[in-house]
């Protein structure tokens, strides 16, 4: 396995528990046969080709970006199976927020829970003012990661409860401890000696210990206190913590208090010789190497009652309630009871797991690309929102001025202003934004004029249902897009789903005065209930569910009505989309596939829906209030036997602005899929999915002659056979029956490729598959190398093709895999890259200067979820 660690701590550059852990873990992983590289954001140099030091960064966002770029460089030169980031400082944020740019879409990205800044600030009671952005980056990194590694089972509960991480993404990965500590015989000295072990820091409870220590020093004149550990900086007082401790200790006790550097593991037993009791007074911990080292040396221990300690210290340690008084009472009682101290020292050591167990086991799968996209959008919007400031009075004045200045005057004024003034003006008010605002007002006025001339409609072809909950800002645009249709037989039903804001209510009232618009009002019941209510009031034979912040293209109704009229068994017609707002690109869906439709949605929420079909399955599921209610309806319709029809034109305008409900739905894609599966267990059971996959998306399509032989011994059951040039003979028919392989007949190879459904295609007439597992091995090779379009033999002749590369000349695949041990070419083949272009993958001429986001047809792999 190839592993990359990303950190801000690594000895000898930076001391810290996470760096120590990575250093130890790296050694164990390499000894276990793994390849490990490290990216360190710190000052200095390490003479090691597998460690890349990129320097320290004062700004957390800049550091996260630099680390992401360094990781991307390593992934590009030598692929990685796992990239593991520390959790604090939001180090993983940039890489997770743009996985495509950094080559991490198909790489497992883990965030290890050491102790984020948010947890530390909460523990010490320090305000988060000034740290809002980095704390949000930390939280969002947990949200976006494929897996969050935690040090113990108790911390699974802590992280799930504190950060909302799903338990299926939490994996116990115990830290790598040192084996250099020897257990010593407990031999307390003649005078009571109390040791505080570990870094002197606020979060380590150092200052709280001082509050407990002073009464003990007063009541026990012979008590000595030793602080053993490195010094840290105070968040509250902005100076070394040791200085604060010295200032707090009354001068009469100063000769009984000492400060010593951190002990090396091999010398720990000797350094602690004579101690009666060791205290680790932490306010927050994720694991705490210091506490485990004390017990490994065989010393009695006092610890606060934290989740991090609960799986390890039932014996050999005493917990207190975390308060200074609780610590004082606990320590005082133990110093008065030598027998209990001896019993604690003699107690068995904690039991530990192998720190490599998590790396040897199957980690949670890489998150679905749809989830990656949605989570990244939500995360970046949340972080960006923290840096947005409310407009100043100057901004407001300039914007109001633009609204009253005629366009010619504004244009002239902007031209004659000096450049410095122009720059200040543009930072406060935007003329293009003002032009856009005026264009919207003109558009809204236009629909009122058009509405005045519209004749009434008796029985409309189409009813457009627009649910609206606090989206009044965009509602008139959605309504305007209906008035602008080149199909005239329509009505609009606006459903007010319990909006409270006066702006939204006013907007709904205003559009309700337009002809052909009906307003339905209800309590806030959620989007699916609002759609059902609107459809129940509709009169059209076709229904268009349009969200209040989206728009229809002018030709939407004409094309969709025509498609449904021509396909009476189709429940809905769907199309491509133009995304606008924060994103400007075209969304081109993959060709429809029923198996993949069960696993990931390829139909936009705005369709033309046959009213009869909606009624036949009971409408939208009103319990799906967290999104994916449209996907669930498509699945229910298709499982009920209805068909779909795809109109491969850009007819729908999908607004992507901030963290809309649709964005949040994408972010919880996996959870949404499980909700749908739970509602359709008959279709999502393992056997049902295997059967569906075999019929709709087999691993391999074999193009064969009617009499082909030699396929009997192959171990891959998930195949289909497509015969060209005649009817299959009895032997081939029997083979397909016995293996459960679908068998079809076509006129020639071109038709065979067009009708094939396999992820991979082979010309079985031209390839002699010598090995029984040759097909499965070749398919597995393509599955592992996503950039490859074919597996070839030693002569360079293709044995197995990625079907996508055959039917789409613009597929993103760029390389071949040579495997001479799987089979060999025995004849000529007409299979070639882009030789059988499928019209479903041909983009029509597009006038808009927009990039195109094409949905991958290979969202899912071999396995069912």
Description of the structure:
- By secondary structure, the protein is of the alpha/beta class.
- Helix 1 (17-31) links the parallel strand 1 (2-7) and strand 2 (35-40).
- 42% of the residues are buried.
- The protein has 33 helices and 32 strands.
Give a brief rundown of this model.
The chain is an alpha/beta fold and 865 residues long.
Structural class: alpha/beta
Mean pLDDT: 88
Query: Main sheet?
Result: 10 strands, mixed
Cα separation of the termini: 23 Å
Count of DSSP-assigned helices: 33
**Rounded to an integer, what's the Rg over CA atoms?**
33 Å
Shape: globular
Weakly predicted, low-confidence segments:
none
Q: Give the percentage of residues in beta strands.
A: 15-25%
Estimated helix fraction:
25-40%
Number of strands: 32
Which descriptors would you attach to this protein?
7-stranded parallel sheet, 32 strands, alpha/beta, 865 residues, 18% strand, 39% helix
């Amino acid at each position: 396995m190839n592993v990359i660690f990303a950190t801000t701590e690594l000895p000898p550059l930076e001391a810290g528990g996470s760096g120590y852990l990575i250093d130890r873990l790296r050694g164990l992983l390499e000894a276990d046969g793994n390849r490990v590289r490290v990216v360190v954001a710190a000052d200095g140099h390490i003479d090691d080709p597998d460690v890349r030091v990129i320097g320290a960064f004062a700004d957390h966002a800049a550091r996260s970006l630099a680390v992401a770029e360094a990781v991307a460089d390593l992934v590009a030169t030598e692929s990685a199976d796992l990239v593991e980031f520390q959790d604090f400082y939001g180090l993983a944020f940039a890489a997770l927020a743009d996985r495509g740019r950094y080559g991490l879409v198909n790489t497992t990205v883990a965030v290890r829970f050491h102790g984020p800044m948010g947890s530390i600030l909460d523990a010490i009671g320090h305000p988060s003012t000034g740290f809002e952005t980095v704390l949000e980056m930390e939280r969002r990194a947990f949200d976006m990661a494929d897996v969050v590694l935690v040090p113990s089972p108790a911390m699974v509960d802590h992280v799930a409860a504190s950060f909302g991480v799903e338990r299926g993404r939490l994996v116990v990965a115990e830290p790598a401890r040192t084996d250099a500590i020897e257990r010593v015989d407990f031999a307390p000295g003649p005078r009571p000696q109390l040791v505080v072990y570990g870094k002197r820091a606020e979060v380590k409870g150092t200052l709280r210990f001082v509050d407990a220590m002073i009464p003990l020093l007063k009541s026990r004149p012979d008590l000595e206190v030793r602080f053993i550990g490195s010094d840290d900086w105070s968040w509250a007082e902005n100076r070394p913590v040791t200085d604060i401790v010295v200032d707090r200790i009354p001068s009469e006790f100063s000769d009984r208090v000492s400060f010593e550097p951190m002990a090396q593991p091999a010398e720990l037993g000797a350094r602690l010789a004579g101690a009666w009791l060791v205290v680790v007074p932490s306010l927050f911990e994720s694991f705490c190497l210091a506490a485990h080292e004390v017990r490994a040396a065989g010393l009695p221990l006092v610890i606060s009652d934290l989740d991090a300690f609960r799986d390890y210290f039932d014996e050999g340690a005493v917990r207190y309630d975390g308060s200074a008084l609780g610590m004082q009472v606990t320590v005082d009682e133990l110093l008065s009871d030598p027998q209990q101290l001896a019993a604690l020292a003699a107690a068995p050591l904690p039991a530990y797991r192998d720190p490599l167990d998590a790396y040897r086991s199957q980690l949670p799968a890489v998150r679905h690309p749809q989830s990656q996209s949605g989570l990244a959008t939500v995360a970046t919007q949340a972080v960006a929102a923290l840096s947005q400031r409310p407009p100043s009075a100057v901004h407001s004045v300039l914007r109001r001025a633009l609204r009253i200045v005629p366009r010619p005057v504004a244009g002239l004024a902007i031209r004659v202003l000096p450049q410095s003034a122009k720059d200040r003006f543009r930072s406060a008010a935007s003329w293009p934004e003002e032009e856009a605002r005026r264009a919207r007002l003109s558009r809204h006025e236009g629909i009122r004029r058009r509405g005045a001339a519209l004749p009434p409609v008796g029985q409309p072809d189409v009813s457009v249902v627009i649910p609206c909950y606090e989206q009044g800002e965009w509602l008139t645009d959605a309504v305007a897009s209906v008035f602008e249709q080149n199909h005239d037989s329509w009505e609009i039903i606006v459903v007010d789903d319990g909006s409270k804001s006066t702006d939204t209510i006013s907007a709904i009232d205003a559009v309700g005065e337009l002809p052909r618009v009906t307003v339905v009002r209800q309590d806030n019941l959620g989007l699916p209930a609002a759609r059902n209510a609107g459809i129940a009031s509709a009169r059209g034979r076709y229904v268009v569910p349009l969200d209040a912040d989206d728009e229809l293209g002018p030709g939407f109704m004409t094309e969709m009505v025509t498609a449904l009229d021509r396909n009476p068994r189709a429940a809905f017609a769907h199309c491509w989309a133009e995304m606008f707002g924060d994103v400007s690109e075209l969304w081109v869906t993959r060709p429809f596939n029923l198996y993949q439709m069960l696993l990931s949605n390829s139909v936009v929420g705005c369709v033309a829906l046959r009213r009869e079909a909606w009624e036949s399955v009971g409408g939208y599921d009103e319990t799906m209030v967290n999104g994916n209610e449209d996907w669930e309806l498509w699945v229910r319709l298709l499982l009920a036997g209805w068909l779909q029809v795809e109109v491969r034109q850009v007819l729908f305008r999908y607004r992507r602005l901030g963290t809309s409900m649709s964005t949040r739905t994408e972010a919880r894609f996996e959870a949404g899929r499980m909700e749908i599966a739970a509602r359709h267990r008959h279709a999502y059971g393992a056997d049902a999915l295997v059967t569906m996959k075999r019929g709709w998306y087999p691993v391999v399509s074999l193009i064969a002659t009617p009499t082909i032989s030699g396929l009997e011994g192959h171990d891959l059951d998930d195949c289909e056979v497509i015969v060209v040039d005649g009817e299959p003979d009895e032997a081939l028919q029997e083979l397909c029956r016995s293996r459960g392989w679908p068998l079809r007949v076509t006129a020639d190879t071109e038709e065979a490729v067009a009708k094939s459904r396999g992820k991979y295609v082979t010309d079985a007439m031209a390839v002699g598959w010598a090995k029984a597992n040759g097909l499965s091995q070749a398919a597995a090779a393509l599955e592992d190398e996503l950039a490859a379009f074919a597996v070839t033999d030693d002569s360079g002749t293709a044995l197995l093709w990625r079907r996508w590369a055959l039917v789409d000349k613009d597929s993103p695949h760029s390389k071949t895999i040579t495997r001479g041990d799987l089979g060999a070419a025995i004849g000529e083949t007409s299979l070639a890259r882009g030789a059988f272009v499928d019209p479903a993958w041909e983009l029509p001429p597009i006038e808009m200067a927009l990039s195109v986001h094409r949905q991958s047809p290979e969202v899912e792999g071999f396995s069912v979820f």
